[in-house]
Fold Ferredoxin--NADP reductase.
Amino acid sequence: MNARAHQLKVREVISETADAVSLIFDIPTDLTPRFSYSPGQYLTLRVPSDRTTSVARCYSLSSSPHCDDRPAVTVKRTPGGYASNWLCDNVSPGDVLTVLEPAGNFIPRTWTNDLLLCAAGSGITPIISILKSALTLGRANVVLLYANRDRASVIFAPQLHQLLRRHPRRLTVTHWLESDRGLPTSRAIATWARPYRRHDVYLCGPAGFASTVKQGLNQLRVPDRAIHQEQYRSLTDNPFEHHTPVTTPAETPPAGAATVRVDIDGETHTLPWPRTEKLLDVLLAHGIDAPYVCHESACATCVCAVKHGRTRMLQNESLIEEELAQGLTLACQTLPESDDVHIAFDQ
């Protein structure tokens, strides 16, 4: 099993709506550093399955590390969704779940800029973590657009009401209920968002909602670099059941292999790096506990820095231009381009 998987006790289960629950975890003292997280990140939970032993699902942290005592994820039922239904129906206080350490890069880089937060349905989970953190850490204004089917579907309604009372000058919340107004249109979004077009945008929700919001913001000439979107997708690789092939590192590097020096967890390893093998696969094959979740470039859990040498990525769905310019890369997609490469996971 993934060495970054840990057993966590569920301290509390909160019913947020008829279809959504929040799971609050107790973190043992020795694991506190490993479960330090940033607003907008997520946890990957192992859900038992009779058919496949287990399934892995990612759920955003709805708590804020800056104003909540314990980490919490919020799970909303989805039609035919095995994992979400199992978690909503079966988890009770005192139960123990297997959980990967926090991951994800849907994280504000600064807390000084005004924020425009757009969410629909369960997309509110990382958004409320960012919202609470912004109100706690800085003086910026925060605007939330939250779309739902109807009033009963609004997750965190009491929490949002309390935050509005506590921060009446800095927080603005607009609820868009389909039962009252129909689905939002790009023109309606543009009209509503005009006063906030210079804010940094964080967006999370179903594809249709996200597309409509971006079209509306495009009408206001909001630059793409100002729009940050969290995208949920199913994992094709189960990090809880992933079995790394047992290999015996060769005494001499394969012909044409590069040499990589890797700084990770306070140690340095020097390894042969075959030209056609991704860095993450090389590390796992040598028994090195590199961080990963998805193997698909989507989660940014395996991000590392190229300190020396040249590499290339086969695919990138996580890193932005500024991060690429800083030399960051994704181990799960990275191949060597030069003979000698120095990689650092310890940032």
